[in-house]
Amino acid sequence: MKRVYVTPVDQKIIPLPDGNGDLPQDGKDVAAVSYWYRRLADGDITMTEVGAQPEGKAAKSTSKNDTK
Length: 68
Description:
Protein name: DUF2635 domain-containing protein
Number of helices: 1
Shape: globular
Helix content: 10-25%
Distance between the termini: 25 Å
Oligomer: single chain
Structural class: alpha+beta
Number of domains: 1
Radius of gyration: 12 Å
Order of helices and strands: EEHEE
C-alpha cells in the first residue's frame, strides 16, 4: 500500500483514524487512505509522498493551496 507523510497545519489536533490518539505535531508516516485525503481537502494537513523520489531528492509536498 502507498505510504505518505502527513503533518497537521497550524497546530491543529487531528485524530488518527484507528482511534489511537492524535497525529503528532511533527507528522507521521501513514498508509495513504481516504481519511488522509479528506483531511488534505479540508486544509487540515499537508501530505508528502514517501519513497516517491530517489534518496537525496526533496519529496513533493501537496496541500489544498498548492497550484497545479
